[in-house]
Every structure is written in C-alpha cells, then in structure tokens.
Amino acid sequence: MAQHPAPPSSPEATRFVEPVVRPIVKATDLGSVQVLKQGNLYLLTDPFGDVHPDTRGLGLYEGDTRRLSCSILRVNGQRPVLLQASAGGNYHGTIQLTNPRIDRNLEDKVRPEDALASQKIGIGRHRLLDGSVLEERVQVVNYAEEPVDVELDLELAADAADIFEVRGWVRAARGRHLPIALRPDRVTFRYDGLDDVRRGTHLLFSEPCAEAVPVDPDVAGSANAGWVRLTWRWELRPGEARELRWLAWTTERDAPDPTDGTSPLALGRAGRTDPDAALFPAPPQVDEERVAGSYRAWNQGFAEIRTDNELFNLAILRSAGDLRLLVNDGPGPDERYIAAGVPWFTTLFGRDALLTSLQALAVRPQLAIETLETLAKYQADAEDPDRDMEPGKILHELRTGEMARNGETPHRPYFGTVDATPLWLVLLGATFDWTGDRALIDRLWPNALRALDWIDRYGDRDGDGFVEYERRSDRGLLNQGWKDSFDAIRDRHGRLAHTPIALAEVQGYVFDAKRRMAGLARVRGEADLAARLDAEAERLRARFEEAFWADDLGFYALALDGDKQRADAIGSNPGQCLWTGIVSQERAGRVVERLMAPDMFTGWGIRTYASGQIGYNPIGYHTGTVWPHDVSLIAAGFKRYGFHVEANRLCGRVFEASQHFAEFRLPELFCGFDRDVSPVPVPYPVACSPQAWAAGAVFLFLETMLGLRPHASAGELELARPELPEWLSKVTINNLRVGGTEVDLLFHRWRGGTSAEVIRKSQDLSVTIRM
Question: What pLDDT score was predicted for residue 227?
C-alpha cells in the first residue's frame, strides 16, 4: 500500500486564483493516446504522459466528467525526450524520458555524435489508478559527473467538461467555475454544475512547491477554465535521485447557494480563507494490492488459452486485458458491467455489453451473468417518449454526468435501440447453454417475459410481424440499430431509408431470441409457451425470406423502410443474419459468396457497405469501414452454415490486422481501404481503443474455429467440425467451464485436418466431436 504525500500546510497558506472560462475544444483525433483505467476512473495522455487541451479528448475522467483537462510536465522549461511509454498494465504504466539536450555548460566538451550520451538526466513517470485516486510519481536521477540544477514545472487545469461537450456538443449554458484554491502542496479545482452538484478535483503533493502561479490562458493556448503552474527546484548531486509524488482524486456534493454571502466563491473574491471543510479533504488510501487482487480473481475466472503462434497469444492477452480494463462499477451497490469503449463510451451500452458478453461466453461466462442482471435492473417499466422508453425494453445508453442529470440529454438512461431487447434474450439463452444455471433463468424469467411482450407489442409497430424502430422525439437517435449513423441505411440507388425501419439483422435477433426462449420455456415446463414461440419464430423466418430477399441481387436487403420497400444496398447486415440462423440453407452460400466479393471483402475484413455504391466511403462510420465485432459475428455465421474455410479466412485476416495496431489491440473500427491499395490497415481517426466488442471478437473467432457447442444442462460439450487455419497448428484451452465442470482441450492441425483431444475433464461431462 502506497504512503500518502505529506499532510497539507496550515489553512493560512491558502489563496484563491480566479479561473478564466474559455470554450471547450472539440475532440477530433485519438492518435497516439495512452490509456489507463480502473473502475470508473480513466486517464488519457499523449505518449509523454501529458494531458494537453488539444483535440484528442485527453484528460483524467471519472465516469462522464473530465476532471483534469491539463497536466503538462516540463523539465528546465522544456519537454523531455521520450524513450519509452507503456500503458499495458491497464491500471498502471511507466514512461521513461530524459533531458532534451546537452547542458549548456557542457556544450564545448561534448562532440555532436555524443549528444545522446550527454543526456544524463533520467526521468521516470509512474502512474497508478486504483479506482478512486490517481497516483503519479516522477523520479529524476542525475547520471552526470557533476551537480545539476533541475526545475520541474507542472501545469494543471480542470474544466469539468461533460463527455458530450468534449465530443463537440455546444451547450446553451454551463455552470460556474469557482476560484482555484492553492497551497504550496495542494490544489483544488471546483465547479458548480447546472445539476446543482459541486464537483471538486483535488491534488496533493509530497513536498511544497517553490512557486505556484496562475497561467494566462491566452499565452498558454488553453481552452480550459484557467491554469496554474507549480514549480519545484532541486539541485541533484552526481548519482542522486529525487521523487515528486502526487495524488489526484475527486469529490461530489450538493452545490451551495452562491447568493447566501458565505459561499466559497464570495469568500474567495473577498480574499478570505474558505471555511468549507471539503475544500482540502483527506485523500483516499492508494490500495494497489486490492486492484492487483481483483485482477488475480478475474484471471482465475478466465479460461487459459495458449497457441503455437506467439503473435496470436499476444493478441489474446491484449484482448483479455482490455475486457478487464473496461469493467465499470455500476451506479447501484455490487453492480458491475462491461463499458463499451474508451473514451467516448466508457459507460453502459445495452447492445455493446450484450454482444461482448456473447463473444466472451466461452472464456468468461460470469461477464454474461453480470450483464444480464445489470440490464434487467434498468429494464423499462413505463413509457417516456422523450427517452424512447417503453415497458419491457432494454436500455441503449446510461449516462450519469451533468448534462444527463440536468436533462440536456435523454441518457438517464436512454432506450433508443431496437436490438438490445432481443439480444438480451439471446444472451440469456446462450448463457444457460454454457452454465446450465436454472436459478439464473428462474430469477430473470419475469424480465424475459416482459422483453418478449415488448417485441410483440411495441417492437412490431404496425403488426406486420417485423420489429421496426422510429424515434418518438426529435432528441432521439434517427437510426436505432448498431449502424446508427444517419446515412447508414440506403437502397441500391443511394437513397436513405425513412422510418419506421425494419433491419434485417434485427429480425434475425428476434428469430434467435424466440427459439432460445422456447427452449428455456421447455426447461421450465411451460410447453404451451414453448410451442407458441417456436411457431412465431418459423413464421418470422418465412416472412423474412419473402420480404428481404432481392432475387436479382442474390442477396438480402439491409432493411425495409416505412413503406415496406427494400433498402437493398449491399452491406454486412445479412452476414449477421447468418449468425442468427434465420437465413435459409439454400441461400446461405450466395450470401457468403457475396460477402467475400472484392467490393465487400477488403483483405482485412468485411466492409459495412460495399464499395462502388452511392454513399460508399472507406472512412464513413458505417458506410465502408471494417468493424472487428461485425466480422466476428459474420465468421460465426459462416461456420454455422458449414463454410469453414471462409470463416477461418476472416478470423486470420482480422488477426493480421491486429498486428498493425499498438500492443495488438483491435480498435472499434478501421478504414475500409483495399489491402492491395493499403498494405496496412488504416486507422479510423476517432475509434474507441480499447473497445469492448472489438476485444471480444478474438474470443468469438476462437470459438468459431474450434466449433465449441455447449449443452451444460445435459452435461455435454460438442466440438462441431473444429478446424484450425494454416497459421495456427496448436491450441490448448485449460479450465473451460461448462456448467459446474471444467475441461482442458488440445487441438492440433496435422496434414490438412484438425484433431481434438481431451486432456482433463470432470467425470460428469461428456465431450463429443462431430466432424
């Protein structure tokens, strides 16, 4: 457990600096960002460890609020030279730097070719997040043969910006930034939001600074609410090391009335000491062991995977680490969920959490259980058109920042998604397949019945048997499937579809949901309900084939528009229909062939939208880019219909793409340029990274290649046509959980075939191989 910095100096040393409020700069570029996260606290910096008020959305965030918008370290007035940066530890990272140039006193003694050797100041920045506090230690070592004067400058600002503001939302009004409270060893930023919450950001340093001054934001180029600069001056003997340590943490409480004459704002302007005890609160304990212990527990609940391809092993480790990094603490006690992605979606998204949990079911079923239970707690029980909320519906997005609390956005939570509700049912059925947990099914059965009722009563808006969406207020999302950008759904002539819209893949989700719920109804002895749901699923399959198939294209339409006309541009949506099983066996081959055609298959993955069509854009969010999660579902669909070679080809190409991203981390999406045009995948400028269902894609690829089919309630694991690709000869999985049992498996490719061997298993588990 880390020790605290020195206690604060006397209250008489406190002084107040008036902030200067400036516009918040819109974040537009996430290139070269270092990410650390633990719980709901996360830090984005440049590779040097600095937070600049630039366009990348850098900062220290707690939930939906940016708590530090500037943190810039300078040594002797200059930016140090970067040697190495690592954020691979999820909640801790180290950055190694050195002094930027030869000391002027030595310039006449050092040859130009010895310039690097003359950089004799070692600078290490060590960060740790424990979920409630950021600890940073800056270590400076003098490797020179003579004493060196070192001046550390740290510039700080806190804009308390809501994440929607950082993304570019222009607000009609903001709250008040109170004067910045300064002591030689402490800084406190305060902001009173329009939601009547005072948000404090506090910093405590291990030793008093020599100087603390406000920074003119015009000179500094700040877009924040006022800067301060703190300076420490050290003389280091040869070989001497010094360390400056600081903590940063946050507080929230009700904001006092600014007109009562005793508020900190009024007292600060009067030059008096703020009597509020919350001005300089005691810092939380930094508990690294608690966080490390939570990682050990997570790893124990994660299946162990090892292959003979070391690069693939690195991709697996990175993806597993990203899933753990993205775990958030819920608003309620004992709630945990997987956040969608850093930085823009570090919150609960129904669709994203559900699909990620499905992708990772084989390796960590507990994630699915947590997702199901958390989303069930927020299942809608009333109508609210402003939030697209209807009884039985599963939420789209939950926000807890100032703008949501103040009603400026509908995300408290917002329910504008057409697919989260059937996907919740799909995950419930799939989780039972892996766990056989009857108590979970019985506990969530009322939620399942309400979700089924929503599908029939509200999802099918016009009674035609298809589930459609249309926003109920002008604040809602126009498109409410996973391709939710305004220009995502088109016909073959490039015309945008108008609502209400019935998406192809959503009909597949509903089909799968009803089939799975029929199976669970039989487990519960509800035979009539099971028969009804099976019949409804088969009628949906028949209607889907008739309404969505465009025979002249040899492909399914993306959607039906409000006039029941096909939005029949060529896109990836029918690939997800394969995953759900709604596609007829006779037409599956044509779908696979069309998806693997050059205008859809880039060489790195499947485009969201075929090239050459009106509206195609290789950097369009849903109109030509490649999404790893989408490809993982499509590959699983290929496998389901027996197209094993094509499935493995997709798995391999996305894995190859991961090798071109830092630390083998798959981003949310990347651009859709052809591989023969761009020999490396082109990053998408504002993609979330890490991102949950991109991390989960690796595990669904594995499940697809190995053909894992669990039947936990029957005590059986089926291996359906396991087939390893040419780049992978051996896969070992230990501690694969099927119900209350565990099994260790070895897969080996030899002379064009793949064998499977059971290394260890529980006595009451049957493993069968179907070739």
Answer: 83
Closest CA to 204 of 234, 233, 183, 227: 183
| Amino acid residing at 543 | R
CA–CA dist 254, 92 (Å, integer): 32
Residue 479 or residue 331, greater confidence:
479
Q: What is the predicted pLDDT for the residue at 29?
A: 57
Amino acid at 479: N
For the chain, give me the number of helices (H) and strands (E)? 17, 32
3-state secondary structure of 359: helix
Helix axes 504-523, 420-435, angle to 10 degrees: 40
| % of the chain surpassing 90 pLDDT | 83
> What is the number of other CB atoms lying within 10 angstroms of the CB of residue 734?
15
For residue 7, is pLDDT > 50? no
Helix segments in 50-192, DSSP class H: 163-166
Residue 722 has pLDDT above 80, yes or no: yes
The encoded tokens of residue 121 equal: 């100041």
The pTM of the full predicted model, rounded to 2 decimals, is 0.92
- Assigned token pair, 713: 């309630």
Within 13 Å of residue 120, how many CA atoms lie on the same side as its CB? 21
Question: Angle CA(696)–CA(314)–CA(741) in degrees, nearest 5?
Answer: 55
* CB-based burial label for 534 (10 Å; 0-12, 13-18, 19+): middle
Structure tokens at 83: 């040697």
Sign of CA pseudo-dihedral 101, 107, 110, 112:
positive
Cis peptide before 283 (omega within 30 of 0): no
Report how far residue 521's alpha carbon sits from residue 516's, in angstroms, rounded to the nearest whole number: 9
Phi and psi at 577, nearest 5°, equal -60, -35
The pLDDT value given to residue 13: 63
User: Please, which residues bridge with residue 305 across strands?
Assistant: 733
User: Which tokens is 514 given?
Assistant: 């009803």
Q: What is the mean pLDDT of the chain?
A: 91
Beta strand 766-770 with 716-720 is parallel
Q: What is the share, in percent, of the chain residues with pLDDT greater than 70?
A: 90
Q: Work out the end-to-end distance of the chain between its first and last CA atoms, rounded to an integer number of angstroms.
A: 54
- Answer whether residue 419 shows pLDDT above 80: yes
Q: Are strands 81-86 and 70-75 parallel, antiparallel or unpaired?
A: unpaired
**What DSSP letter does each residue of 426-464 carry, written as one string?**
HHHHHHHHHH--HHHHHHHHHHHHHHHHHIIIIISSSSS
Q: Give residues with Cβ within 8 angstroms of 108, minimum separation 6.
A: none
Among the listed residues 604, 614, 686, the one whose alpha carbon sits nearest the alpha carbon of residue 650:
604
Question: Could you give the C-alpha distances from 463 to 247, 326, 481, 539, in angstroms and in order?
Answer: 58, 39, 20, 13
Q: What pLDDT does residue 66 have?
A: 96
Greatest Cα pair distance in the chain: 92
CA 541 distance to own-chain centroid: 33
Residue range 725-751: mean pLDDT, rounded: 96
Instruction: Give residue-wise pLDDT tens across range 557-583.
Output: 999 999 999 999 999 999 999 999 999
Average pLDDT over residues 300-322: 96
Average pLDDT over residues 320-330: 95
d(CA 632, CA 48): 34
**Residue 696 near residue 360, CB atoms below 8 Å:** yes
76 CA to centre of own chain: 38
Given this model, what pLDDT does residue 31 score?
A: 60
Across 120-139, average pLDDT: 96
Which residue in this structure is represented by tokens 């099971």? 530
- Which pair of tokens denotes residue 389? 């909320």
CA torsion angle for 693, 699, 700, 702 (degrees, to 10)? 160
Q: What length does the chain have? A: 771
Q: Using the predicted structure, report yes or no on whether residue 219 has a pLDDT greater than 50.
A: no
Q: How far is CA 758 from CA 410, 722, 743, in A?
A: 51, 13, 7
Q: Are strands 65-68 and 502-503 parallel, antiparallel or unpaired?
A: unpaired
